[in-house]
Amino acid sequence: MIPYVKKIQRYVHDIKIELKKVNWPSKRELSVFTGVVLIAILIIGVFFWILDTGFTAVLRLILQ
Q1: What per-residue confidence (pLDDT) applies to 40?
Q2: 30-59: per-residue pLDDT in tens?
Q3: What are phi and psi of 62, to 5 degrees?
Q4: Model's pTM, two decimal places?
Q5: Calpha distance 41→50 (Å, rounded)
Q6: What is d(CA 13, CA 6) in angstroms, rounded to the nearest whole number?
Q7: pLDDT on residue 1
C-alpha cells in the first residue's frame, strides 16, 4: 500500500512542477484569442449555412 502512496505523491509533485513551466496567457491575449476563435466559428457557421441552403435548393429542384 505504501508504494502506491509514494507514487501518487510523486505524480502530484511532478504535475505541480510542470504547471509552473506553462506559459499562461495574459488577460489581453486571452480576450484576443477568444475573439479570434468566435469570429472563426461564426465565419465557418455562415459558410456551412450557405452551403446547406444551396444543397437544399438544388435537391428540391431535382426532386420536383
Answers
A1: 98
A2: 999 999 999 999 999 999 999 999 999 999
A3: -70, -40
A4: 0.64
A5: 14
A6: 10
A7: 62
Which three three-digit cell numbers place residue 64? 420536383
CA–CA dist 21, 7 (Å, integer): 21
CA dihedral 38, 42, 48, 50 (to 10 degrees): -170
Unique residue bearing C-alpha cell 461564426 = 42
Chain-centroid distance of CA 16 in Å reads 23
| Helix or strand (DSSP H, E) at 2 | helix 2-21
Amino acid 25 reads: P
Secondary structure string (H, E, C) spanning 44-60? HHHHHHHHHHHHHHHHH
Collapsing DSSP states into helix, strand and coil, what is residue 27?
A: helix
Asked if residues 25 and 33 have their Cβ atoms less than 8 Å apart, the reply is yes
